[in-house]
Amino acid sequence: MNSHPKALVIGAGLGGIATAARLARSGYQVTVVEKNASPGGRCSQLVRDGHRFDIGATLFLMPEVFAETYAALGERMEDHLDLRRIDPTYQIYFDDGAQLALTANMQHLAAQLEAIEPGSFGRLLRYLAEGHRHYQASLEHFVGRNFCRLWEYFTPRNLWLILRLKGLVKHYANVSRYFRDDHLRAAFTFQNMYLGLSPYDAPATYSLLQYTELAGGVWFPVGGMYRVIESLVAVAEASGVQFVYNTPVKQIKVDGSRATGVVLQDGSYLKADVIIANADLPYVYRDLLPDARVAKRLNHLKYTSSAIMFYWGVDKAYPQLGTHTVFLAGDYRASFDRIFRDHTLPDDPSFYIHAPARVDPSAAPAGADTLMALVPVGHLDRDGTQNGEELQARARETLMRRLASVGVTDLEKHLTFEISYTPRDWRQYFNLAKGAAFGLSHNVWQVGYLRPHNRHDRYRNLYFVGASTHPGTGLPMVLLSARLTTERILQETCVSHPALLSNPVPAT
Fold first, then answer.
1. What angle do CA 444, 16, 273 make, to 5 degrees?
2. Rounded CA gap, 454 and 281, in Å?
């Protein structure tokens, strides 16, 4: 057999790029085929008239996970990314006019919290200590390792840890044990939204989110989040990875217990020893594989929310808006019920505004502004009756009304262009099942061994990487997915390809 086995990666999202680079460094000959004209997937960018937008993620969290990826590729993150810490991490506006700036300045944060609820700052410190414990234990025992067999996950120790991590307790209920005031309960649970989850359904384990933000920091790379994509593509190419764009895959060909290659949309065939699918996992099973049974089962799992996005080029700056601004709904519980139970837009939606030029002036022309708005909405329903245009119009009206309440009263007059995405766009552009912008959801039944595995059960050389496989959604988790998938590939293929034995898996 060829001493340089061939790996083919379907999709140049963050997980696909990182996996390709790791495999190339370990001795594989790697080709990445991508349906779009550029890499990045949901971490792509839009550039128009001097305005630069990150299409998806705008929060750089858990920098140590990114640093490990660069180190595994023989690089230093600091040589590729110029990171700026964002503080306050968010400016929060509540429906009743109250405000809160979440900041790592503990004195300033304490003064704000004590004014809202006396004694709450001490309880916040205990809550952050809990988040620290959840963060460390989750990385060490759950999201930072593979679970290839049932008994590896359901051990007495892991079951005890799940209880310690409050995996069976809902996040909002847990936060309510620390804070009595509804403003604070919302302020320390809304972060679930950028994982596409409801705090009324998400496990209390996610107290780790607030810990990572306030202790580890929220960061932003100069040049935008897309700098991560650009730099990792450059590192991968330097290791010999070949990227082929505008090349949709039509089918993964299989023979017995192996995947043999892929058929492209133009009918051509690419053969490979190992195939790694970075496309959304439910889409792969439904559209690329002869696996209707598993596709049907995946369709019945819980999915994350979708999002209505607006990308605005503006010919003036709005200093009222910080780098990250959050507007929370008045009826907090009802807003999540509408998203996750009714799969629609809340009557009174919460939303998030990103203004990257606050930290990176190159994101907008001089004297202008680049604004991105994200409005959580339910994913596409089964009967396809969701009226995207009507929801989009209602979301836009809410944005303009709430922005006016903080002094942004003339935005309509100063828009130079507007680009918008709806759930159908997420499905069309990125093959996301149901238009769910964050992939499969996370609950106690969809994590660890119970989450779709990163290798096909039957086709033993077909692997998966990305948000809908283990360990889950969010850029740090996708990078961990790339590491875990690569480790599994190397462990399972070194016997078939002796040349790989001289390239051990990097220590973690």
1. 105
2. 9
Q: Give the closest residue to 33 by CA, choosing from 281, 295, 287, 252.
A: 252
Q: Which residues contact 457 (CB under 8 A, 6 or more apart)?
A: none
Q: Do residues 18 and 232 lie in contact, with contact meaning Cβ atoms separated by under 8 Å?
A: yes
d(CA 431, CA 278): 11
Instruction: Look at residue 508 in the predicted model and tell me its pLDDT.
Output: 35
Q: Are 229 and 40 in contact (CB under 8 A)?
A: yes
- Could you tell me the CA-to-CA distances from 156 to 144, 421, 471 in Å, in that order? 19, 45, 21
Q: What is the pLDDT of residues 171-210, one digit of tens each?
A: 999 999 999 999 999 999 999 987 899 999 999 999 999 9
Q: What pLDDT was estimated at residue 477?
A: 97
The pLDDT score that the predictor gives to residue 386 is 82
C-alpha closest to that of 43 among 482, 494, 491: 482
Beta carbons of 219 and 225 less than 8 angstroms apart: no
Burial class (CB in 10 A: 0-12, 13-18, 19+), 480: buried
The residues near 453 (Cβ < 8 Å, ≥ 6 apart) are 148, 464, 469, 470
Angle at 305 between CA 392 and CA 279, to 5 degrees: 105
Contacts (Cβ under 8 Å, ≥6 apart) of 372: 53, 54, 58, 309, 310, 311, 312, 353, 354, 356
pLDDT score, position 499:
54
Q: Could you give the CA distance from residue 490 to residue 488 in angstroms, rounded to a whole number?
A: 5
Residues of the chain with pLDDT under 50: 1, 495, 501, 504-508
The string of pLDDT tens digits covering residues 117-148 is: 999 999 999 999 999 999 999 999 999 999 99
- Pairwise CA distance, residues 242 & 337, whole Å: 45
* Residues 369 and 355: beta-carbon distance below 8 Å: yes
Q: What is the C-alpha separation between 150 and 234, in angstroms, rounded?
A: 38
Helix ranges, 304-408 (H): 332-340, 388-404
Q: Of 326, 289, 249, which is closest to residue 10 (Cα–Cα)?
A: 249
